[in-house]
């Protein structure tokens, strides 16, 4: 379980996150939604240690990781896929996967496993990542994160700027992963329908504060249409 308690974070003297608390269980999806500039990316960056936490705590599986370096958090089982489909553009798909798999004892099997999840990458193994489409690059970025065998996958707008058919494929894969169990997902997503359908719980972030939270469609006895309209209402304020 990942737990943020009253986290304040930002850039230099400019505080962007003003006391956010949220919990992501070890299994299932938690969605964070909010307008552009609300602080979603900053919140994720603080969670993985790329932005300094000014106060509050980040705990993972009971351990206070607030002061740990990003690499130490990755070693604990956090994997972060940043916004914008980033990979090594000059390296091929194969090399991008290999870089992460190198040094892991079952590297070859891990690559095979992620290719089973993202079969579209199989025919693109020799293509430079910089030449892939946005959707293909996003699949590669998620595949690279999965090679670290994470316990908690942190995704920043995985479907942003991607054509609908690939969005559906990425969504299907995220749901398949969570159905297998043993993986928590902290998902920042503007695509409200998918985020709410897949999530156990959602949080709406506005100007660095949680302004609304509730059960998502994956929770028990939830009417997804009324949740979607609640969130739309919360987000127009
Ligand atoms: N490196 C930075 N230095 C200073 N301010 C920053 C930096 N990155 C972001 N900010 C500011 O922090 C605020 C929150 O930005 P953030 O990127 O976290 O928002 P977001 O919710 O992820 O937006 P989007 O939906 O557009 O991705 C914005 O006002 C932004 O200008
Ligand atoms: Mg962002």
Automatic annotation (TrEMBL):
CDD domains: ABC_TM1139_LivF_branched
GO annotation, biological process: L-amino acid transport
Transport as UniProt keyword: yes
MF annotations from Gene Ontology: ATP binding; ATP hydrolysis activity; branched-chain amino acid transmembrane transporter activity
Keyword Transport in annotation: yes
Keywords (A to Z) from UniProt: Amino-acid transport, ATP-binding, Nucleotide-binding, Transport
Transmembrane segments: none
ABC transporter domain mapped to chain residues: 2-232
Coiled coil region boundaries: none
PROSITE patterns, per the entry: ABC_TRANSPORTER_2 (PS50893)
Family annotation (InterPro entries): AAA+_ATPase, ABC_transporter-like_ATP-bd, ABC_transptr_urea_ATP-bd_UrtE, BCAA_Transport_ATP-bd_LivF, P-loop_NTPase
NCBIfam families on file: urea_trans_UrtE
Annotated family: Belongs to the ABC transporter superfamily.
Protein name from the UniProt record: ABC branched-chain amino acid transporter
Taxonomic placement: Bacteria, Bacillati, Actinomycetota, Actinomycetes, Mycobacteriales
């Amino acid at each position: 379980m990942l737990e943020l308690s009253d986290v304040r974070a930002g850039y230099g003297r400019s505080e962007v996150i003003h006391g956010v608390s949220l919990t992501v269980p070890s299994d299932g999806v938690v969605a964070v939604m909010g307008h552009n500039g609300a602080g979603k990316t900053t919140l994720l960056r603080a969670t993985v240690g790329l932005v300094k936490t000014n106060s509050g705590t980040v705990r993972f599986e009971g351990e206070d990781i607030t002061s740990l370096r990003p690499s130490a958090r990755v070693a604990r089982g956090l994997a972060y896929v940043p916004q914008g489909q980033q990979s090594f553009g000059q390296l091929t798909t194969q090399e991008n996967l290999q870089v992460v798999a190198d040094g892991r004892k079952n590297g070859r099997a891990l690559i095979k496993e992620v290719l089973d999840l993202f079969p579209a990458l199989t025919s693109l193994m020799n293509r430079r990542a910089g030449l892939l489409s946005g959707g293909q690059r996003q699949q590669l970025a998620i595949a690279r994160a999965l090679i670290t065998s994470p316990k908690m996958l942190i995704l920043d707008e995985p479907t942003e700027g991607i054509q609908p058919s690939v969005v559906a494929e990425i969504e299907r894969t995220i749901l398949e992963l969570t159905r297998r169990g043993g993986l928590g997902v902290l998902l920042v997503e503007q695509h409200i329908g998918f985020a709410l359908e897949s999530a156990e719980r959602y949080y709406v972030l506005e100007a660095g504060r949680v302004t609304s939270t509730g059960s998502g469609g994956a929770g028990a006895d939830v009417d997804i249409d009324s949740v979607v309209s609640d969130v739309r209402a919360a987000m127009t304020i």
